[in-house]
Structure formats: C-alpha cells, structure tokens
C-alpha cells in the first residue's frame, strides 16, 4: 500500500482527498474541482514520463488547494517529502491556477503574480521548461530570471522562475535592469527550502518580499531541519504542513558503504604510450586496499562494469574543476564519462545530461547542482569528495533507491585528513550510521585524534 503521508492544518491532522496516495489526476479536474484544467491535464499526460495519476505529495498539495480551499487561500505551507516524490509538479499545478486567477483579478497589475525560487541555475532552467510544457496555449507569460539569460525588459509577466542569488537586482533596479513591482504577487514558492534558508541573503530577500506583498509562501524540501530563519518566515497561525516518509533517513533499498582512501598516496593507474592501462595490485582478500582516490574510482567503476556493463554511475565531486578532471581522466582510462556543473553553458549541460539520460554514457560526474534535477535509474552513487553536511549526504542517497529499486552509495573517506570541516563531516556520518554498518577503519575515528597529533 502506498504511504499517503500526513497532512496538518496548524497542529491538527486533516484529510487528504480519498485518503491520498496514487489518485487519478481527473479527481482534481474540472468536473470536481477547478485545480487541474482540461488543458493542464492533457499537458501532464504529454510529459515524459506521462503523468495521469498523483503521487502522495501531489495528492496532499492538491487537496489543500481544493478540499481545504477556504483555509488555504491565505495559508502558508511546508511540504517535506523525499527527492523524486513529485514535488515539482505538486507546486507547478497550483502555481498555474494562481497565475490564471491573478490574471483575471488584476488585469492592470504592473508586475508578476507568482514567483518560484529555486537554488540553482540548472533547476531554474528545468522548472521553466516544464512550466512552458504545462501552459501551452494558455496565454500566460512566463519569465526565467536566472544567471544564464538576458535581463528581462518587460516587468509585466505572470510567473517568474528565479534564482534567489540574483533576484535582488530586480527589486532594487539599475540602469540596465527594470525594477519589478511586487505588489501583485500572491504566491511565492521556495523549492529546496532547507538549503536555501542557509543563505542569509536568501532569508533577507524572502523577508523583504513578505513586507512588499500579501503573498502566501509555499516551502518545499526533501529534508526537515528546524531553523530560526524558517521560523521568522513561516506563518504558523495559518499554515499547512505535509510530511511524507522518513525524509531524514536513507531510503530502505539503499546500501551505504565507506571505502578508505589515502589522498597523500600518488596515483598508480595510468595509460602508457602504447595505450595500455597499467594497474597495480590493490586487492587484499578481494577488498580494495586504501589508495589514491582516482585509483579507487577507476577500480570501483571498472570492476562493476566488467560484471554488470549496464550499471549507471553518478559521481559527486566538490567543485566543477574536479568534476571536469575526473570525467577527462575516466575517458583516458577508456571509461566513457561526461561532466555536469554550473560552469558549463546551458547547451553543454543539456547535451551532457541527455547523453547520460539516453545511456550514451553511463558515468556522470557532477557537483551539488545535479541534486536539483530529477535523474532516473541511477544504480550507484560515488561520493568522490566527502559531503560536508549530513543533509547533503542524504540528498545524494535520495538520488538512488527510487520506486523500491536497490542501489548503492559509496563514500570515499580519508580518515587522516587534516581539514577540520571534513573531519567534522566524518564524525557526524559515523555518529548517524548504525554501528553494524560502520567499517573497521572508522570504528575508533575521533575528530580530535589527527588534529592533536599535528599540533603536538
């Protein structure tokens, strides 16, 4: 049975239409409710993959907009559900209705009616593209206010898909940028709210929009972390909260493993002048000995590909430079790979993502940017660089194990690192990992051990 999640109004549980879960989209259509118009329903069916029924999170959000419409008209909402659960469609459908309603009620407005804030340029482009697909022939003007497009010249539009880092310029205006009139904004969506609210200038931006508008705020996140920033923004007196699954836990079908590396060791795998790949024995009773992380990556990917050639890998690096380096190195070692990160132009990113999606290459090296995309059918995630927060580790784990599919998350760890932030991250990871899953090399890990040895 599908877990429908739990929906609250203030602190009291309230009903989700027909118990929630997987419901036909038609339940929210024009015959029963005005949320999903015939045009939107048809456009949802044309998406790839086609959407004809709700996921649990969509059923809950759509219920707020229909069954509970008398309260939700001015209510804030917090929606916490795992990655891949359908949160983007869950907020885009209400966004479209809000924009159409605002269009009719405020024909003489001078600015946008709905704003969507997403944490990265790549996610903004993806949301903007999906929104255009869902609003074909509806007469809505949709603008992308993000880093890789020209500044908008006409401030009169219905929906803005924005990157919070760069939006403030539209509030203040410059000689080259038209100042936006936000008085007509009625709905603000903050995607990946947990991460966004870690940035002080994001919080200040949202607070400023609060003071300039009468908008309700919808916060969507895949993890639930309380913070002063969220408390300062959320209207607890009139709000809904939806929780689905154990969002702060690793998916049940995902196996997490930790492999010891030694960054101080020189790489030993290389291609000689004849094109032959030279490797050195690193096996100890069929286990990889600690070695340079590039060597460990080669052995991990190559050994798996020899046994299961269709395995799809997602490799996380700390920044774009490392991602590019690893993609090039893997290619030289005869493992087709490509990189995906925010330093690439839009065309290059799209081409590389399509290559991975279409199985032209089965290894994608990326940064945190890909956490904002919905990537399907990944078998193994490799954390080449240690994630510096447990929330990021969870995000990466939620890239796999979707729809009950078994998957593996491998994390490379150098326990001898001197970097304080990395040692803090390792300590947190050890603390939150069940004892039976902690490998021997981390059993006695101490945040202070190497630091004390260094200082003495």
UniProtKB/TrEMBL annotation:
Q: For this protein, what is the EC number?
A: 3.6.4.13
Q: Does the keyword Lipid biosynthesis apply?
A: no
From what superkingdom does this record's organism come?
Eukaryota
Q: Which organism is it from?
A: Panagrellus redivivus (Microworm)
Residue ranges annotated as transmembrane are: none
Q: Which reaction does it catalyse?
A: ATP + H2O = ADP + phosphate + H(+)
Does the keyword RNA-binding feature in the UniProt annotation? yes
Enumerate the spans annotated as Helicase ATP-binding domain: 68-242
Could you tell me which InterPro entries the record lists for this protein?
A: DEAD/DEAH_box_helicase_dom, Helicase_ATP-bd, Helicase_C-like, P-loop_NTPase
Which protein family is named in the record? Answer: Belongs to the DEAD box helicase family.
Q: What's its top-level EC category?
A: hydrolase
Tell me where the signal peptide lies.
Answer: none
Domain notes from UniProt: The Q motif is unique to and characteristic of the DEAD box family of RNA helicases and controls ATP binding and hydrolysis.
Which positions fall inside the Helicase C-terminal domain?
Answer: 293-446
What function does the entry list?
A: RNA helicase.
Q: GO MF terms on file? A: ATP binding; hydrolase activity; RNA binding; RNA helicase activity
PANTHER family from the UniProt entry: RNA HELICASE
Query: Which SMART domains does the UniProt entry name for this protein?
Result: DEXDc, HELICc
Q: Which residues form a coiled coil?
A: none
Output the SUPFAM superfamilies linked to this UniProt entry. P-loop containing nucleoside triphosphate hydrolases
Q: What is this protein called?
A: ATP-dependent RNA helicase
Query: Mind listing the UniProt keywords for this protein, alphabetically?
Result: ATP-binding, Helicase, Hydrolase, Nucleotide-binding, RNA-binding
